[in-house]
Amino acid sequence: MKKEELFARIEKAIIEGRKSEAEDLAREAVKAKIDLTEVIEKGYVPGIQKVGDLWEKGDYFLPELITSAECMKAAMAVLQPELDKANIKTKTKGKVVIGTVEGDIHDIGKNLVASMLSANGFDVVDLGADVKLEKFIEKAEETKADFICLSALLTTTMLGQKKAIELLRQKNLYGKFKVLVGGAPANQKWAEEIGADGYAENAMLAVKLAKRLMGA
Amino acid sequence: MSLTILELIRKRRVLLDGGFGTELIQRGFPQGACPETWNVERPEVVKEIHKSYFDAGSDAVLTNSFGGSTIKLASHGQDKRCYELNKAAATIANEVKPKGGFVGGSIGPTGKFLQPQGEFTEPMFEAAFAEQARGLADGKVDFLLIETQYDLREALCALRAARKVAALPVFVTMTYNRVPRGFFTLMGNSASQCLQELEKEGVPAVGANCTLDSSDMADLVKAMREITRLPLIAQANAGKPSLSSEGEVSYSQGLESYLQHIPKIIANGANVVGGCCGTNPDYIRRMAFIVKKEG
User: Fold this and answer.
1) Measured between alpha carbons, how far is B118 from B125 in angstroms, rounded to an integer?
2) Cα–Cα distance between B274 and A95 in angstroms, integer?
3) Domain spanning A3-85, CATH architecture
4) CB contact under 8 A, A130 and B116
5) What are the chain A neighbours of B180 within 8 Å (beta carbons)?
6) Inter-chain residue contact B32 with A130, CB threshold 8 Å
7) Which CATH entry fits the domain spanning A95-213: 3.30.230.10, 3.40.50.360, 3.40.50.280, 2.30.30.520?
8) Residue B1 pLDDT more than 70?
9) Which candidate, B103, B102, B106, places its Cα nearest to that of B86?
10) CB contact under 8 A, A159 and B249
């Protein structure tokens, strides 16, 4: 199979959410000794990006998004050991610490952002829901994160996003991490008012925003 | 002989209540706590809110049990109290119910996903909802409202569970996003798929709540009316919430622009109307006038 044909089939498998095919094609690429970074960049990544576009247009919904993100994960599980073996460092798009702020147990949106960032090549540490604000900062320090992503669904818990930024200032860490905020009541104006680095309305826009802030 | 809720819906337009969370917070409910616990710990506050809605003109109020399934309560470590908290929710609402008024048992989503997106199975969801419905039924609600559902499969689990444990009318409202192709739930269920399925299951009143503002809700009601002849329920949000850096919450629509679309929601075919996030007794008081005027 020609390289281009393989890439096209990979892209299609991701768009259509066929997991075993996404894995098989990864194995095929390994066997054919094709440059695996090219396989990722020209096959898998365009696939997940199209999935995101379809979702933004309202043609795809959450189940399709999750299924395709899982196909990516499965394929990467095949490719990563090979990349490690060949000592090829895939450049991470950025390191992310993400969670829903304390007092807030809602995690559907946060999970979606986490899996789309991960599917798009970011290194994601998901702290879960109802996360103490100190914990975000500790983990970001520990993992040398580029981003702290704070999710909140409630107007009451959304204040946690503001407090987290205040906490960063107190610790003289403001500016060390890029802070992104999201959740139903959040918006661009809020992000600016509290001194966050960005706001995204949905998971796809979060990926685009994070890439832009990384200068990619 | 007083009318049942279904008889009332057949006879005239019925008015439900509005937002509950904001009302609780205004009365000192702390951030991140479990709202259902106040049915037992601070019943006087919950009752005061219900009463304010009845006073504003609500024909029926919904119990403070939106997150009362065992699965949702487990996020607060309160799952063992499921029956107790739901029964209390119903009991205290009944204590302020005026003559001719109704109490509906609110059943919201679990916040979790069924397999394959999540870890839960349908029997697990059914068990979680059954325990809740049992409490609400024993506290003597007049009907159950399975509301704000974003997954039709989950809504059907709740429906089966409720019917298994309670001999009450069970209504279902889904929550839809507006996309270029129409109205769809988060999981991609179209309005027509939901309505057809729920009608097939024999649900006596169906509809939509939350997410949409009153303008989009009017369009959704029109679309729903083309699909079903069942009584339709519509409870719109007052737009999107936003928070000033001082912590002031406001909703994008505001009272007047919210109310402007209520006559259209009614004209497009809603039989049961009410508010959702961002609405309060002031909204309901004004809606009561509109409902009367529009007949």
Assistant:
1) 12
2) 45
3) Orthogonal Bundle (1.10)
4) no
5) 57-58
6) yes
7) 3.40.50.280
8) no
9) B106
10) no
